[in-house]
UniProtKB/TrEMBL annotation:
This is ArpA protein. Residues 131-242 form the Fe2OG dioxygenase domain. PROSITE patterns: FE2OG_OXY. Keywords: Iron, Metal-binding, Oxidoreductase. One of its GO terms (molecular function) is metal ion binding. The keyword Metal-binding applies.
Length: 260
């Protein structure tokens, strides 16, 4: 914990305290989102930001059209049907193998105390990815880049904001929009979201905020970045089973390569 104490604000967030863990777990269960402002100390955030700026030229950039279900189009529906309607996601990304061994991100990700905290809050056993690219990703969204409306395939996501843009880059969501386990896709509700007819919620976050989000049934997006300050966001990716690698198709799509 002594090393983590230089990176994380453990006075404000006692991650080994069972009462604090229970509070976090209850908030996540109740709302589907947990935001811990200032979780990473400012000096550690600055170190990660500088690393991100220095390595941004190594990022792989993609602009992808996809439907909100992140699945192949279903020929039973028209292309303008909410099941198949396309939205755009565009971003850059540096992968786990590019993140330095002495980076606060790697120290944090590998720390048993941090992983144990996440696992307790998420009520999951957590394991790193078996491939060399997917465990820690730093995402860049420059002006005009965005994350289109979608549902996650995984049950949870863990992110850390590093740099906030001058404008835009807002995380918006609508909870309980579908029930994936029951196969209830709620096309009518999704169509209303895509048309802007549904009031959305926003997650307010500043650099250093840790966010746990359950996006399997909550439709969500990140609005286009505005201005010349790039939005930088870290995704700390874990599996609930050991020895799982991101598929080769997904790695080629998001990273442009398969190995380090």
């Amino acid at each position: 914990m002594s090393t983590l104490n230089t990176i994380l604000d453990l006075a404000a967030y006692p991650i080994d305290d069972q009462d604090f863990r229970a509070e976090c777990r209850n908030t996540l269960a109740r709302t589907g989102a947990l935001v811990l402002p200032g979780f990473m100390k400012p000096e550690a955030v600055e170190q990660v930001k500088q690393e991100g700026l220095e390595k941004q030229h190594q990022a792989y950039y993609t602009a992808k059209q996809h439907n909100v279900y992140l699945a192949e189009s279903d020929p039973a529906f028209g292309e303008d049907h909410p099941r198949n309607q396309k939205v755009t996601s565009s971003k850059g990304c540096i992968t786990d193998d590019v993140i330095g061994e002495d980076s606060p991100l790697r120290i944090m990700y590998n720390a048993e105390a941090f992983r144990d905290f996440l696992g307790d809050v998420l009520e999951e056993e957590l394991y790193e990815y078996a491939d060399p690219l997917s465990s820690i990703n730093l995402h860049y969204a420059s002006e005009g880049q965005e994350l289109g409306w979608h549902f996650d395939n995984s049950s949870f996501a863990t992110t850390l904001l590093i740099q906030k843009p001058a404008g835009g880059g807002v995380f918006e969501y609508v909870e309980n929009m579908r029930d994936a386990d029951r196969g209830e896709m709620n096309y009518e509700g999704v169509e209303r979201v895509l048309k802007g007819e549904v009031e959305v919620k926003q997650l307010s976050m500043e650099p250093g905020a840790l966010v746990l989000f359950r996006g399997r049934n909550a439709i969500h997006r990140v609005t286009p970045t505005q201005g010349d300050i790039t939005r930088m966001l870290v995704v700390l990716a874990y599996n609930n089973q050991p020895n799982v690698a991101l598929s080769e198709t997904a790695r080629m799509t998001f990273y442009g390569r398969l190995t380090a």
